[in-house]
Amino acid sequence: MRFPARLHVLLARSAPYGVVIRRGPAKAVCTIGWNRAKDEFQLGQWMRGRIYEQRCDLSPDGEHLLYFALNGRWQSETRGSYTAISRAPYLKAIALYPQGDTWGGGGLFTGLHTYWLSGVCEKPLRESPEVKRDYSIRRIGSLHSARLERDGWVPASEDGSVFCLPAPYGWMLRKHLRSGFPGDPGRSCHWEEYALVHSATGRIHPLPGWEWAGVDRSRIVWASRGTLNAAPLTRRGPGPENQLADFNDLKFEAIKAPY
């Protein structure tokens, strides 16, 4: 049985750009640049390992990608896991911080060229004048929640598992963060469930099977089964669906970053 690729998307806040993080097979991941003005895509780079999507971020102008990765090479200079900053959509690091475990790592952009890191205890292997580490913030609870709130998502539950993002025509895109592993409480996985909720009428439009979703201008965009899709929002809900790209057939290849 062939399993579809898993997709997560980071949207730049001040530019029509995004980065798609594509995972699959299990030990391969790649990044893909998304020109949202033209819906054009550019393959970045592949790596053998895992990128933790909820600990990643994209600079406001879409120029730099901050990501946390695990490659399991524990005796290497990166200690098997690391936080890196690259020029999007590539993965080649211009700033590189070894981690050595998965208890910390990752971070957030606090400005156009400034970033905050979570739990980095090793000296950097590489730094760049293009971006500067921000030491003004001492601690952030949940990186993912902090990124959502910064990008306009509003907490909608006491336990911090539900967020809503305002959308056109009075709609709210609702995201429910789920975790667990049915039948095995000792294991854990994370996923997201989505729905459109009308703020005035309370009408709910379920969006089953969506693994990531966001609002891009007057349309809703989402990932499902290895594809990226879009639909205009109307007063009745999503309009006609348009598949922007199918990333399922991509295969690992060595790509050199142009810097």
Q: State the secondary-structure class.
A: mainly beta
Please state the average pLDDT score.
93
Work out the helix count: 1
Spans of at least 5 consecutive residues with low confidence: none
Q: Summarize the helix and strand pattern as letters.
A: EEEEEEEEEEEEHEEEEEEEEEE
The fraction of residues in strands falls at: over 45%
Shape type = globular
Major β-sheet, in short?
5 strands, antiparallel
Whole-angstrom Rg: 18 Å
> How many β-strand runs?
22
Percent range for helical residues?
under 10%
Distance between the termini: 39 Å
Write the layout of secondary structure elements.
Blueprint: E1 6-11, E2 17-23, E3 28-35, E4 40-48, E5 50-51, E6 57-58, E7 64-70, E8 81-87, E9 93-98, E10 107-109, E11 114-117, E12 132-133, H1 143-150, E13 154-155, E14 162-166, E15 171-180, E16 189-198, E17 204-207, E18 212-216, E19 219-224, E20 227-234, E21 237-238, E22 242-246
Parallel strand pairs: 11-12
Antiparallel strand pairs: 1-2, 2-3, 3-4, 5-7, 6-7, 7-8, 8-9, 10-11, 13-14, 14-15, 15-16, 16-17, 18-19, 19-20, 20-21, 20-22
Characterise this structure.
By secondary structure, the protein is mainly beta. The chain has a domain at 152-252. Helix content is 3%, strand content 46%. It contains one helix and 22 strands. The chain has one helix at 143-150; strands spanning 6-11, 17-23, 28-35, 40-48, 50-51, 57-58, 64-70, 81-87, 93-98, 107-109, 114-117, 132-133, 154-155, 162-166, 171-180, 189-198, 204-207, 212-216, 219-224, 227-234, 237-238, 242-246. The strands form five sheets. Strands 5, 6, 7, 8 and 9 form a five-stranded antiparallel beta sheet that branches. Strands 13-14-15-16-17 form a five-stranded antiparallel beta sheet, with no helix packed on it. Strands 18, 19, 20, 21 and 22 form a five-stranded antiparallel beta sheet that branches. Strand 6 and strand 7 (64-70) form a beta hairpin. The radius of gyration is 18 Å and the shape is globular. The model has no long low-confidence stretch (mean pLDDT 93).
